[in-house]
Design brief:
With 639 residues, the chain is mainly β. Helices cover 3% and strands 42% of the residues.
Length: 639
Amino acid sequence: EALNYDPNVTIADESCIYGILGCTDPEALNYNPEATLDDGYCMYPQEFTFYVYRDGDTNPLDSVFEMYSYSDSDLGAGETHCYTVTAILENGTETDHSNEMCATTPDVGCTLDFYADLPSATGEASLIIVQGVIGIEVGECDEIGVFDANAILNSGNCDNDLGELLVGAGVWESEQLAITAVGSLDYCDIGGNQFPGYVVGNPIIFKYYHAASGVEYLADATFLAGNGTFGQIITSVVLQITACCIDNIITLNPFMNNMFSTNILVDDPSVSHMFSDEVLIVQNDTGDFYVPQYGIDMIGDLDYLEGYAAFINGSNTLEFEFTGSQIDQVTPFTVNPFMSDMIPYFGRTTMPSSVAFGPFDDDILFVYNDSGEFYVPSYGIDLINNLVPGEGYVMFLNGASPIEFSYPADGLASPIANEWDALKPGLVSQHYDVVKTGIVYPIIITDIQGDVAVGDEIAVYAHGTLVGATRVVDTGRPLPVTAWGEIDQLGIDVPGYTTGDAIEIRYWSQSQKTELIVSADLDGEYFGLSPLTIGRLVVHSDSLVPTQFSLSQNYPNPFNPNTTIEFSVPHPTSLTISIYDITGKEIRNLIDDTGIVQGYHNVIWDGLDNNGQLVSAGLYIYTMTTEGVSVSRKMILMK
């Protein structure tokens, strides 16, 4: 019985060795707990590539590295196959074949089809048991998929590519279903690689595929065991399928442009079916219209991947309620550059704007809704606060390339405390009565200097018409001002700016109860010629309502080629401003207007004469003439 027994020996030399040979290292794959003597052949996981052989073939079916399970794919129902495994040692030699094990695929009519694209087994797994499914009539060959919305996707490298991944699935036959979810591997910290699968601690997402209708549903889970994240010893759930029907309510207000979207799939998505004739016009961001009273329908079916705008007839708020199946919240859609792209919102409940847009902050210039609330990440402005089902939004990108945008799955991100939520009520104007049209132009004042106090107000005008206002709530932070565009079509006439109108800024002093003169340094002087306008203000102590005619010294002076001439008018009048050379010859008539309104004004001379020719350098005189008053000043044009 000795390990070194020699049958040729006739006399014992007392050197017999007794015990059991084997691997005595508990960390080894072939550890033998009964071995008393180590045989020097312990095998460790990190040392091996495994070859998998099927049905006695001399060539391996596949190889796996640092993974200790294998899934044979593309097999039919009722197939039986037998497998052995070998390992490649550090010295490059291949071990003998393992014992043979056989298995037969289920001889059933239903196999995974819709949720069949599963990652290879990694040796990391979570057991998820579905105890029941309610809310839907179970059909033949329905499937349940288990997803991680932020799983590791890459394989065999350290790219750390994260995104949604199907990690487990099974056919639901109205009985308890055990699903093995595949976990990721990440050996990058020790010089290895990553392999795809769920990430421990991420929320478990369930989807249900109804084979008969070909519709996929997002499922709500009630957890009987486990906390709803991957990595638990066992997870047990009951799934609630809201197959039909979810209500989507779209509210349209009168006298304004309403942005809307839908988060459901309806049986008939045609715009003519979804909206009554009480809607005057529906339009998208590519110039297509639906105008029922004129029989115009360029839109056809509403695309749930788009946002829309609508204007209604009458003076009463309208609500349109639709019923259909829920659109998956993480469904991606394309946002295009160089345009105000109207986008949808797919959530069933509200979502903080910081959660919705935060992952794309580097790509977003701004987002706004039809209430004139902005999200401008580069300036830390977030007035939207929460996205609302049924609402549409406008997004403008920073760069020149389109992006694929998607909302995060529920529970993947935590909202950031939004200090603008507390400041927003204080931004509402108390002095000015602004008409909100739903057509928005964002203006951001980054700095205000001069005679400024909290409670004062900034007002924006276009051709003397008030188009926006906001209160000063903090002199140390950027202030958003929403300017509202006019609506003038199909008999609708709502006042506001038009593209190309000059931007005029005024400042209301709460303490002095008057408008003060403002010097504005803006990066754009006109509405709509850029995506938004950003600038600084200097508020002067002089009242915006002048008491006499005045003509100020031009600035800059000397100049080349442009200079600004400011003047004030105490009441509506007719007025001329002309430029003369030193001989008294009129070079340029800048203003000859019978409708100059009360206030402070300015005009720019570009160095051209009445014929459009650039004048020569030298001394020039500019003169304002009105109601028997003539005031002149000198200026110098330099080359």
